[in-house]
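Many introductory courses stop at the sequence. We go one step further.
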Amino acid sequence: MRVYIKIAKAIADIARYIVEVAIVVIMLLTVADVLMRLIFNHPILGVSEYSQMLMAIILLAAGYTAMQDGHIKVDLVMNKLSEKVQKIFTIIASLLAAIIGGLIASRTYVEVARGIREHQTYVSLGIVKWPFYLMFALAMTVMTLSAVAIIFEKIIELREEDKGGAEHE
């Protein structure tokens, strides 16, 4: 289990770097579009479609954020519970996230195959859509792998607490 956790963290870290590049590209593209419109009264064709394509890449950050425990959550009730109960709730929430992420990923892989088969393209640019569907599917896969890694981490922590608690008795 620990090897799986290390692999999932490494994948999430790689995804983070890809997302950082995508965010910079979106930012530069948007600034360039605004300047082109302002200075030359001629915006860059398809900027909104390029931004949509890059947004699929940005979703890769979901797995990294989960591994860093960075998702927004309400601790109002959870902080009043014991650490063990908090870990159990984290396992349950991560299990649900893994199931939902896995279902979304599997369905999106079907859409990737359909996009390839039907040669779907963006209207104004004529760029094929399936690579961006694939990025979304990969993002959901990374999120699912991260959720499973979190489940493993919490199970290991609970086991170690139980062993430590049994030794102190």
